[in-house]
Write a structure and sequence with these properties.
Layout: H1 9-15, E1 35-44, H2 45-48, E2 61-68, E3 71-75, E4 78-82, E5 86-90, E6 96-99, E7 105-114, E8 129-130, H3 133-148, H4 153-168, H5 184-194, H6 203-210, H7 214-225, H8 229-247, H9 252-258, H10 264-275, H11 279-285
Antiparallel strand pairs: 1-7, 2-5, 2-7, 3-4, 3-6, 5-8
Helix pairs in contact: 3-4
């Protein structure tokens, strides 16, 4: 549904009432601003999954505007069809990649950024939204400011307004089992530590890096995320393996070693238990995402 174009400025001004108290106006709210903003574009289907290191997982938001050409965005275990003229917000530490692109040529705008507004933006999780004239206008201003301004102030302020517009959209409640009561700080820090190298960190190393005891880390993680930290770390390694199987040229044995499994046997067994198929069968099946058993944070009801 298209949003009507705003009336001309003269008409809007004519609606304004005379202020009862000329010196008393609206106070500014304390709004957390996005930070470390990066804007870029993808113009071909081949470029969508670059860099080719598997399914993306990082601590930043990814705001996608599909200006031309539809594609499926696979986020965690959900395949979301993003049509031309729609947008999607991918949250920090969500696995994501792209498939079933309608045409090799496309025009997609990506805006990645850091923000603490996870709860405020929770309604947008897994939810495509229409690119209204207001959103398109703000996106154009953002790209222009990003390209021309020497300081980061204007792009950040424009992105903040754009996100405020997104929060006002009337969207259906998310269909995912994600709960906004999950504590993102501990989960994010654990994921960051797990992604620093291909070697899976030990529980002792992670606890030392977080400044707590291993037993305290186990208890806190299960209490806040609803699953053991061991299962979650195994899930991260398996998700990384899915990306390599789908995108990379490596043999299954090489992927097993790359993702920190001691042998191809242990990798194949863990993969089959999690997804119901062998790694080789998954590679040959062409499935976008295997449906894992719900044993990781964000998958519990």
């Amino acid at each position: 549904m298209l949003t009507p174009v705003s009336p001309p400025l003269k008409e809007l001004v004519a609606r304004l009432p005379q202020p009862l108290h000329p010196l008393v106006g609206r106070s500014a709210a304390k709004l957390p601003l996005p930070d470390n903003v990066v804007c870029f574009q993808r113009s071909t289907a081949t470029d969508l999954n670059k860099p080719r290191r598997g399914r993306s997982l990082h601590h930043r938001f990814v705001l996608i505007f599909a200006l031309r050409t539809a594609a499926t965005v696979c986020v965690d275990d959900q395949a979301i069809r993003l049509r031309a003229g729609e947008g999607l917000l991918v949250f920090p530490f969500q696995f994501h990649h792209y498939t079933k692109v309608a045409h090799e040529t496309l025009a997609w705008l990506f805006v990645t950024f850091e923000s603490t507004e996870i709860v405020e933006l929770a309604a947008l999780r897994y939810q495509p939204f229409g690119l209204t004239p207001q959103l398109r206008s703000l996106a154009a201003e953002l790209v222009e400011a990003y390209e021309t301004e020497r300081t980061a102030d204007l792009p950040i302020l424009i992105l903040s307004i754009l996100l405020a517009r997104l929060r006002r959209l009337k969207l259906a409640a998310p269909t995912t089992a994600w709960s906004v009561t999950t504590q993102p700080d501990l989960l994010s820090r654990v994921n960051q530590l797990a992604q620093r190298s291909h070697e899976p960190p030990s529980l002792q190393d992670m606890a030392r890096a977080l400044g707590i005891s291993p037993s305290h880390l186990r208890a806190r993680f299960r209490a806040s995320c609803g699953v053991s930290i061991g299962r979650h770390l195994r899930h991260l390694r398996l998700e990384q393996a899915c990306g390599h199987l789908r995108l990379g040229p490596q043999r299954v044995s090489e992927i097993a070693e790359l993702c920190g499994f001691s042998s191809i046997y242990s990798f194949s067994r863990a993969f089959r238990v999690a997804y119901g198929v062998s790694p080789l069968a998954y590679r040959h099946s062409g499935r976008s995402v295997p449906r894992a058993r719900r044993d990781s944070p964000g998958r519990h009801r």
